[in-house]
Amino acid sequence: MAGQRVVLTEKAERTLIALRDQARARQDTNSFPATRDLLVELENCADPFAPARALVGGLSTVFQIDNGVIRLYYTRLGSTVPTIAILHITHQITPRTAPYSVFAQLILSGRYDDLFRKLGVPVPDECQNGAKPTLQ
Length: 136
Fold this sequence. Notes:
With 136 residues, the chain is of the alpha+beta class. The chain is built from 5 helices and 4 strands, in the order βααβββααα. A hairpin with a 5-residue loop joins β3 (70-77) and β4. The chain starts with a strand and ends in a 7-residue tail after the last helix.
């Protein structure tokens, strides 16, 4: 399935631009290329929607990929020509920041409900019934 189209939501695009600008300001030659490389890797990934990349429970329509510095959360759009929609980008993955937990709470708070509807992706079950996530 390599060569699928990757699109960024507005929020993800703003984050990507901010990461680029921060990297330029610090003259950091690693962080922005790491993000760009991860996007290219995702675009050329053989199976970006493999079960091992999926989040758990009601969040299973959301997937993740990371390179130790950047984590991308994405979902699938369309069925005939798969398109990857990047929902959220997290920078500087450390146990202290717990990016999965933070992102899951954002999703389950309902903050992304309108975006899911706009993209035509089912809103995760827990958002609809108000249950709290079980984070691993």
